[in-house]
Amino acid sequence: SAGREDSEIASNGDVKSKAEGSPAPSRPQVSVYGAAFQDQEASEDSVVVSDETRELEDKMKADLAKLQEALEMYSACQRQAGPMMPADKLKSCDERIHHISVQLRRLRGSSGPLSANDSKDKVAKMFLGRSATKRFRDLRSIVRKVVAEIRVARLLRRWQQSASGSGFGTKQSAGSLQEFELDAGKLKIHVWDGVDVFEIEKACQEPLAMVFLSIWQARGLAQLCKAPKFKVMDYIRNVESGYKANPYHNRVHAAEVTLMAYQIWSLLSGIKEMKTYFEEVDLLVVVIAAAIHDIGHPAVNNDFMVKTKTDLALRYHDTAVLENFHLATAFELMRDLGVNVLDHNLPSPPMASLRRRVVEMVLATDMAVHKSVIDALTQELEQHKSKQHVDKLVLEKNIVHMADIGHPLRPVELHQRWTKRVNEEFFAQGDREKELGLTPIALLDRDKAPPLGKGQVGFLKFVVEPLWTPMSTLMGPKAKPATLFYQRNLRAWQAIADTEKD
User: Fold this and answer.
1) Is 190 assigned a catalytic role?
2) Integer Cα distance of 443 and 304 in angstroms
3) Within the chain, what is the greatest distance between any pair of CA atoms?
4) Taking residues 233-260, what's their average pLDDT?
5) Dihedral, CA of residue 480, residue 486, residue 491 and residue 494, to nearest 10
6) H-helix or E-strand containing 214?
7) pLDDT digits (tens, 9 = 90+) for 289-323
8) Where residue 72 falls among pLDDT bands split at 50, 70, 90?
9) Which region among 156-170, 227-241, 374-388, 464-478 has the lowest average model confidence (pLDDT)?
10) Which of 44, 121, 318, 396 is the most exposed place for a label (fewest CB within 10 A)?
11) Among 249, 253, 326, 344, which one carries the catalytic annotation?
């Protein structure tokens, strides 16, 4: 896969020492391509290994380090632009980023000058990452070949790294992964209020990876999934790096939704009447759907995407724009890294059906289908006396949707932190709409929004409670901790609302 190829190239010292080099000492510092072309034009006698050559080589390494730093800064800016950039500009930027990244990986650590005698073969190896058994007519042909092999979908993933430089997309050393596993094993994921995802974010800046690994270990999913654990974690880390630094729709939200989806699933599976209802493969699709459900979220809603006629809105025909984008991004990443997390060791169900279930769960997080999702589960409970007969596909959509907006089921302090964040993101969208000459709805208009307390009472009563009611009915006594927190949050907002003026 693309991900494996890069890792192998980066870790192969022999390839780097044989394929890398520096430009001739008699020429000024130029671009990587320029140096390659000048080496081709130079004669054999004009290239000598001298102190001047080595000095120039050291300068080139230093310049490349600066270039890499600048590129990382640029990639951070590009992440902020996100899907709002025109497709042609995004593609052009991605191609240039990838091309430079390939060069940097193979030129850093150069061990000696490149002689003109074999420059063409070695440059082919340097850029294409393999022995140049195929004869190229000239170095320009090599460059064209490199550009032709660019895979744009992979580029964005590779440069969507966190500002902390965590190195997502590369296999961790055994020691660091073991330490991460130990920390993940300490999470109290089986206690409803046992995990504070904000604290995990503060401690390791990888809340989604930490929560996902904790679930993975607790349920023994390594025995189910064919992909090695380090590849699964490589994928999840790349997913996490795809979340933008938004106030609300960020990697902490992804971790919280994954955690709550698991907890609801686990509580349901612990009900006596549903002991044989779930299998571990059902958990696999639920946590994957929860983890990827908002990847790449641009901090604006579907309505904004449609009203501003973004490329994504046109691509997905104004229907579930962001949800389709999240799904496409996550499955493209799975393909590009060569990690099929849904491939399992059971004779059934087939992977295609598991993928379809993930798709349906993520699409169910679209608030446009909120009522239909609730109605479907309510109807299932009315039609079937036995919980065993409830449609599993209907139930798992409700699980992920509930987890997505379920922070009112958490302790008051955590819920209010989430409320502050989501309001910040809402008002930022409203400000953008005003700048574009649009009229935001009252909820997004900081000048017209209802008072905070009254607004939250309405959200809890008319959005969260209708969704939680059929789910808590199904869960029975297992729902008590979450229901108690919901009631406390409702009382807290009601107390605030009572002091507010209209």
Assistant:
1) no
2) 13
3) 89
4) 97
5) -150
6) helix 207-218
7) 999 999 999 999 999 999 999 999 999 999 999 99
8) low
9) 156-170
10) 44
11) 249
Task: Give, as one character, the DSSP assignment of residue 344.
Answer: B
Angle at 357 between CA 351 and CA 363, to 5 degrees: 140
Give the CA-trace dihedral at 285, 289, 292, 297, to 10 degrees: 170
The label of the residue with tokens 């910040």 reads 424
**Angular region, 115: left φ>0, alpha ψ -120 to 50, beta rest:** beta
pLDDT of residue 501: 82
- CA 497/CA 502 separation, integer angstroms: 9
Q: Is the pLDDT of residue 453 over 80?
A: yes
* 342: nearest Cα among 393, 291, 379, 303: 291
DSSP 426-482: HHHHHHHHHHTT----GGG-TTTPPPHHHHHHHHIIIIIHHHHHHHHHHHGGGGHHH
Neighbours of 215 (CB within 10 A): 26
Amino acid at 488: R
Q: How many CB atoms lie within 10 A of CB 307?
A: 17
CA distance 49 to 39: 14
Report the alpha-carbon distance of residue 183 to residue 240 in Å, rounded.
18
Q: What is the 3-state secondary structure (H, E, C) of 158-176?
A: HHCCCCCCCCCCCCCCHHH
Is residue 430 exposed (0-12), middle (13-18) or buried (19+ Cβ within 10 Å)?
buried
Taking CA atoms, 300 is separated from 29, 82, 180, 251, in Å, by: 45, 11, 33, 16
HSE at residue 322, side-chain half, CA atoms within 13 A, is 24
- CB–CB of 221/253 below 8 Å? no
What CA–CA distances, in Å, run from 219 to 133, 140, 223, 225, 336? Answer: 48, 53, 9, 12, 27
SS (H, E, C) 194-210: CCCHHHHHHHHCCHHHH
Angle ∠(323,470,351) on CA atoms, nearest 5: 45
**Mind listing the pLDDT tens digit for each residue in 153-192?**
444 444 443 333 333 333 344 446 677 888 888 999 999 9
Q: Which backbone phi and psi does 282 adopt, to 5 degrees?
A: -70, -40
What integer is the mean pLDDT of 423-452?
A: 97
